[in-house]
Amino acid sequence: MEYALDRFTAEITAAIAATKRVPPELIELVTPKANIPADLAFPTFKAAKALGVAPPQLAAELAAQIQPTADVLIGAVVATGPFLNFSLHPERLAHMVLTTIALQGDQYGAQADGAGKTVVVDYSAPNIAKRMHVGHIRSTIIGQAIVNIYRATGHTVIGDNHVGDWGKQFGVVLAAIEREGQTRAVGEAALAELEAQYARYSTAAKEDPELDARARHWSLRLEQGDREARAIWQWCVNLTMSAAQRNYDRLGVQIDHAYGESFYEPMLAEMIQQALDRAVAFRDDGGAVVVENLQNLPTFLLQRSDSGTLYMTRDLATVVFRLREFAPSAIIYVVGEPQALHLRQLFALTRAMGYANDVALSHVAFGTIFDTTGQPLSTRRGNMVYLEALLDDAVARARSVVEQKSPELPDGEKQAIAEAVGVGAVVYNDLYQDPKRNITLDWERMLATEGNSATYLQYSHARCCSILRRAREDGGSGSHLDATLLTHPAEVRLIKHLARLPDALREAAERYAPFVIADWCYATAREFGVFFEQCSVLKAETPTLRSARLALTAATAQALRRGLALLGIRAPERM
I need a surface site. Which of 182, 275, 308, 494 has the fewest CB within 10 A? Predict the structure, then answer.
């Protein structure tokens, strides 16, 4: 699919090259400054220097030679000093953008840049025997958006939920259950009790070395295949993943695989032996396998002196498995900033062992979530917010908004809208800004119907749908598009924003940045608001203008729905 702005760029490049004045390798286009009335510009500095002429002279010569024909998107061509400025032809742009959106529908913006390439995205990663909390929601939401974006750019994407179900921390879970007994609660309540048992045991183990040794013993029993340890472990896994799936369903998250750390247990001995054989690691006098002097990173272990393995051992096996199983061109880890050092060590170890030399290993780090008092959410502080409770609270607050705005709607529809709005508010609060930034749970802002919020974007979409419904109800929706009528400045600005989604999608993939899509959605909603205020749709001056504006409204609804879907946010038709 050829998109309007791609075609515009290609036409400009071809037009400049056709003058035979500038070598193709010297043609570089830029976006003009905001105060310049143009859409793309050719700075002539490099070309003029190579040709031995003054930049303003070259720009003027080119402007005189380039005469756009009636079948291109190039409108005006103006030389301004050393810049050759190009403007889009508004009517031709409108026709191409609106027909493209109508043709592509929910796939608008999709492209084949990643065809033939596989990307693995490591995200969510809840810990077994624990509830999902706000820390997991960041990884889950950001990860799913990156999956959506990469699939839309033509990549084959493998979403992998790397579940923490192994190691010393799980030995504590097993030892705590041995000490206090297995809870009879179910669901999140059972996980809450397991967390409480874990906390009590950890506290006691600080004072009693025997308890710490017991936890290590259970960890080894689990790794060595002990039947009792494996049975309790499997119960914990089933309990946790069942609870997590309810949250995933509400968030619209669909992860392809959920390989726990335990899945890689058969590979661990091989990984340790390879590290030793390749002189990447050595076994010390106590029997531990040590990696040191690796790219000036701190020393770390691959195996404890008691033969137990560690996160690094299992993470190395995970990388190797992914390389063998999926042959990816990139592996993207959506993991909190505190794990940055661990991942640098992992990437360095992987390459030192001869793996992934032609595979991109990337860490998409994210910051901390704070409460409204500015305190980080943490279990130790006692202000931790758990995911299920967070979503329930968001939906309850959204239901109050729906009751105020649309009291006439059926109860079932109100609840469905509240679910979409509440969950959408949580998702967008994470995605509208750079992942590295810390975020705050501020419900008043998150659910505001004005400003940069999911609710505002959903409301803009619902407003489009309302206009289209009313047009159908009065029997005058129209089907003919005369794009030559869409010349009002507000119409032109809105169409240009709609045209930018394919570029935004590419940029979001290149930067691992869902906020680029969020910015596009927000700008489009704002431009639609200006259009709505300045250009009457249902009461347009003529039937043909009404039809053209209805087509623009329908395209806006479709594009907004597409942008929100890339972020994992639903777009209700009523609000």
Answer: 182
Would you say residue 267 lies in a domain?
yes
Q: Are 265 and 166 in contact (CB under 8 A)?
A: yes
The answer as to whether 93 is a domain residue is no
**How many structural domains is the chain composed of?**
3
Q: Do 339 and 194 share a structural domain?
A: yes
Instruction: With cut-offs at 50, 70 and 90, classify the pLDDT of residue 380.
Output: low
Question: With a threshold of 0.70, does the pTM exceed it?
Answer: yes
In this structure, what CATH number is given to the domain that contains residue 361?
3.40.50.620
**Helix H or strand E encompassing 335:** strand 330-336
Q: Which of 336, 370, 404 is the last residue of a domain?
A: 370
Q: Are residues 324 and 419 in the same domain?
A: no
Question: Are 233 and 225 a contacting pair, CB within 8 Å?
Answer: no
Convert the pLDDT of each residue in 331-349 to its tens digit.
999 999 999 999 999 999 9
User: How high does pLDDT run on average in the chain?
Assistant: 94
Burial of 347 (0-12, 13-18, 19+ CB in 10 A): buried
Helix (H, G, I), strand (E, B) or coil at 370: strand
Closest listed residue to residue 71, CA positions, set 45, 91, 85:
91
8 Å CB contact between 420 and 394? no
* 409 and 518 housed in the same domain: yes
Same domain, 143 and 274: yes
Q: What percentage of residues in the chain have a pLDDT greater than 90?
A: 83
For residues 279 and 404, membership in a common domain is answered with no
Distance, CA of 194 to CA of 128 (rounded, Å): 10
**Contacting residues for 331 by C-beta, under 8 A, at least 6 apart:** 119, 120, 121, 122, 319, 322, 356, 359, 360, 361, 362
Kindly state the tokens that stand for 385: 């917010």
CA distances in angstroms from 309 to 144, 303, 314, 317, 517, listed in the order given: 30, 5, 7, 11, 41
Q: Which domain holds residue 495?
A: 387-567
